[in-house]
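Same chain as my last thread, 150 residues:
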Amino acid sequence: MSRSRKDRVATAIHHEMTGLVQSAMNDPRLGFVTVTGVDLSQDLRHAKVFVSILGSESARASSLEALSSAAGYLRRELAHRLNLRRTPDLQFHLDVSGDHGERIEQLLHDVGLGHGSPALEAGAGSEDPDGEDAAGGVPRPGEELDEPGS
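reply #2:
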């Protein structure tokens, strides 16, 4: 099944923006920037470009400012590289999904369920030292349930 024109144009803009940000921009305010996604309006006139920026809050703010000030240049470069009737206006937005993922990982680690924790490595169906199933004393298939008093 073919993808919609909106999706194809968004993919092309994402690809070109990645190359432009990494090679064509010489702004000293620009830090380590990765283009993570492009969301186009239905009429293809406006593009939200989502970027992930490594560094402190001040480095992120200055990098976003550099991208916003270069929006006209980047739009003109996109017009030269892509054969579109109208090149969309570019709006840059900080993609914080990586920060949310790191926060969730930290919270899971704090409660003992994070990556590499003993609770995850043991698994949900492992036995405890008493020989019972860690899932609450439920016997495994083929095992008999111990009767109280026997």
